[in-house]
Amino acid sequence: MIARLLFALPFLARNSTVIFFLSAPTCLLAQAKPVARYERPYSSSDHEFIVQPMGARGLAMIRDEDKFEKGKKKWEVTFVDSTLHQFWQIELYVDIRKNIIGHDFYQGNVYLIYQETEISREIILIEINPATQSYKAHSFKPEADIRFVYFTIVKSKAIFGGYIQSEATLFMYDLNNEVARVIPGTFRPKVELLDIRTNVNGTFNVILKEKPNKLVIHTFDETGVMLFEKIITIEDKKTILEAQTSTLERDEMVIMGTWTFGNNKLASGIFSVVVDVTQDLPVNYYWLTELEHFLDYQKPEKAAKLKAKNEWRKGRGKSSSFRVNLSVEHIKESKNGFFLLTEAYEAPASYYNSRWSSPYGYSPYNYYSPYNGGYYPYAFNSMPSRYYYPYGSPYSPYGSSSNYNPSNQMRIFQTSLAYFDLKGELLHDRSLKFKEIKMTTKDQVSDFVEYEGVVTLACKNEQEINVEYARDDGSEPVAQKLTTVMDENEISKSESQENSGIRAWYDGYFYVFGYQTVKNNIDRKSRDVFYINKIKGG
Predict the structure, then answer these.
(1) What's the pLDDT at 358?
(2) Partner of 311 at 20 to 30 A CA spacing, among 12, 294, 331, 380?
(3) Antiparallel, parallel or unpaired: β 526-536 and 509-520
(4) C-alpha–C-alpha distance, residues 27 and 21, integer Å
(5) d(CA 213, CA 223)
(6) Average pLDDT along the chain
(7) How far apart are CA 111 and CA 128, in angstroms?
(8) Distance (Å, whole) CA 185 – CA 419
C-alpha cells in the first residue's frame, strides 16, 4: 500500500471573470469558484486515468501502469477524499489477457470489471472498500457468449445487460454466494436495450425498445424478480432514439430522452413521460425548435426563421426540418421536477468511432445496439477513448499515427438543459454557449449541479471553464469564466480537450480533470501533470 498526501492550492480570485446582466435579486447569488486541487506528474507514455466519483467520500482514479509481473498486468487505484487529499493507493495485478470494461461505485465500494474478450470471456470483478482499505476479487465465466454493454450494482448483485447474438438479455452475478445466472424472462429477441439504471431503493429499471413503436419498462428487485412491467406506445411516425429513467429519488418515475421522425438518426426533439402503474399517462413530445433557448448558438435572425418555419410545418402536420445529433448526458430529480441535459454535435462523414464496432471499454453505460450499430454516449463514468488505442499503436482503430487525420473530429457546439415539472411537462430551458469543441470521439463536455434552488451549468474547453448559474425558476443566468490553473503565478501552456472533462460530483460541487503543461512565471519552470480541481457552483 502506498500513501501520498497532496494539499489543496489556495483559490485566487484573479482567475475568475464574472459578467453580470441580471436584476439585483439574482445577482446576490454566490460566484462559482475553485476550492481545491490535486495534481501529479504525467508523461506522454503514461496511460490515462479513469476517474470514478464516490459522492462526498471523494474520487477514485484507476489506470493501467503498463508494468507486468508473472503474466499479470499492474493496475493502480488511487483514492482522494472530498478535499482532494490522497488517503490510499493500492496496486492490483490482473491477468494480462483481461482488459477493464466497466467501473461503478455503490454504497461505499468501487467495482472494477475486467474481461478476456477473445478466448475464455472470463470476468474478474474486483470489489474495493476504501474505508477499510481492503478488496476482494470475484471470478466467473458466463455459460453463454454474452456481449455485455451495461453494468450496474444493486445491493450485493452485479447486473449486466447485453446481447446473445442479436437477442437482448440480463445477467446477474451474486457477490455473496458467487453464483451467476441469466435473469428469467429477459431473453428477448428483436428488442433493443436502451437503459439499465439502479434506483435509490435497491431496485433497478430496464428500458427495452420493441419495434415498431413500443417502449417496455421493467423494474426488478435485487434478486431479479420483476416487480412491474409497463408498455408505453409511441406515436406513429415517431421513433425513440435515446432514453433514460430516473432513479426513484421521488415516488414518480420519469423517462426522458430524444426522438425523431421515421427512421432518421438525427434528433427532432426531446420527450418525457411519467410512468404510472395504474394508468397510461401521455408522452410529452417537444420539437427542438419549440425550446426557448436551444437555438441560442445560431444568429438571432436564423434562429427566428427556423422557429417560424417549423411552427408552420407542425401546424400542417409535417415533420420537422430541423434535426441534429443530440446525446442525452444526464437526468436529475429535484424537489419540484426533473432536469434533462443534452449535447448537440456534428460528426464528419468519415468519422470512425470504435464504440460503434465494439462495446468494450466504455462503461458502466456503453450503449451498443446490434440494430443500429451505434452507441449511447452517456459518459458520466466513461473510459478514456484512447486507453488501449493510442494513435501510434498498430492495433488502434485509428491506425498508426501517420494515418491519423486530426481534421476528422467531432464538433460539439451546444449544451441544453431542460426543466420539467412532476407531470413531465416542460417548464423552461437554458443553453450554454461556448466556442465549439473539437474532439476525436464524442464524450461529455458539460454538466450541471442543482443545490439549494440554484442551478449551475458548466462546460470545460481546454483550460477554460464556462459557467452559468441561476435560480431554478427560469431566471436569467449569471455568466462566468474560470481557468483550470489556480495559482496566480502559473499559466497553462497547453491543455488538450481529449480525456478531460467536467462532471457533477456531490451537493453543489463539480470536479474538473485533465492533463496540462503548467508554467511557473517566477522560476520559469514547466511541469506536465494530471490534475483534478474541485469547483463550487454558484
Answers:
(1) 31
(2) 331
(3) antiparallel
(4) 8
(5) 30
(6) 84
(7) 6
(8) 36
For the segment 218-246, the average pLDDT, to the nearest whole number, is 95
Q: Distance between CA atoms of 307 and 465, rounded to whole angstroms?
A: 30
Closest CA to 419 of 535, 537, 268, 286: 286
pTM of the model: 0.85
Which of 448, 464, 496, 450 is CA-nearest to residue 17? 464
DSSP-assigned beta bridge partners for residue 421: 337
Give the residue with greater pLDDT, 237 vs 360. Answer: 237
Cell numbers 478535499 correspond to 83
Q: What is the pLDDT of residue 27?
A: 52
Residue 423 confidence (pLDDT) above 70: yes
Contact criterion met (CB below 8 Å) for 283 and 234? yes
- How far apart CA 538 and CA 456 sit, in angstroms, is 6
The reported pLDDT for the residue numbered 28 is 62
Structure confidence at residue 247 (pLDDT): 95
Distance between CA atoms of 405 and 92, rounded to whole angstroms? Answer: 36
User: Which residues lie below 8 Å from residue 70, measured CB to CB, with a gap of 6+?
Assistant: none
Q: Which of 256, 216, 248, 247 is closest to 232 using CA atoms?
A: 216
Residue 332 DSSP label:
E
Average pLDDT estimate for 234-262: 95
The one-letter amino acid code at 228 reads F
The C-alpha angle 53, 56, 59, rounded to 5 degrees, equals: 30
- Provide the grid cell at 499: 480525456
Strands (E), 96-245: 99-106, 109-115, 123-129, 134-140, 147-154, 157-164, 167-174, 179-182, 191-198, 204-210, 214-220, 226-233, 238-245
